[in-house]
Amino acid sequence: EQRRQAVAPISTDNSIMAVISRAAADPTCDIEKMERLLAMHERMQAKTAEQEFNSAMAEMQCNIPTVFEGAVNIHTGNSYATLDHITHTLKPIMQQHGFAITFKVESQDKVIKVTGILMHRSGHREQTTMSLPVDIGKGRNDVQAVGSSTTYGKRYVMCALLNITTGETRDDDGQGADGSDTEDMRAQVVADILERV
Questions:
Q1: What is the pTM of this model?
Q2: How far apart are CA 40 and CA 45, in angstroms?
Q3: Phi, psi (5° rounding) for residue 113?
Q4: Which residue from 29, 40, 129, 172 lies 20 to 30 Å from 68 (Cα-Cα)?
């Protein structure tokens, strides 16, 4: 009978916080029961945050363009998108959808470990890690080698977390489809070609 009386008002209350408040006010509620209620509340919050993260990520994916490969590796001749260009392109889109990214870098035994952490305003976060050798390239000192590997790692980890693709064709927001290229777009293409040369 006592259980039935205790459960009846709780079942009509949709707020888990109200349930926790009632339990906290009840002198017969033991600590173990409170801890279970709080753990259940945390799981529910985490699940909601994950759902919001996934929903925002799915929506954001539709707005992420292919990032233009505007730089050329002088050693290989291959074009690539710089970290600065990727960040400049993605930051406003990420902000619009409530995302931010940060990196953690560790160095041990000539290996650079770069971890990217993608956070959403809901509180959920995802991360991925890439381990790279120190980039001892021609004419680089030890500090520059670590910096090169760190930048490389950040670029690829960011692309992995956000599913970013890069390409040699600049995204013109569909302007080229109807032949209405602007002078600014043409000037930018010329500048890109000259920079690559």
A1: 0.68
A2: 9
A3: -110, 115
A4: 129
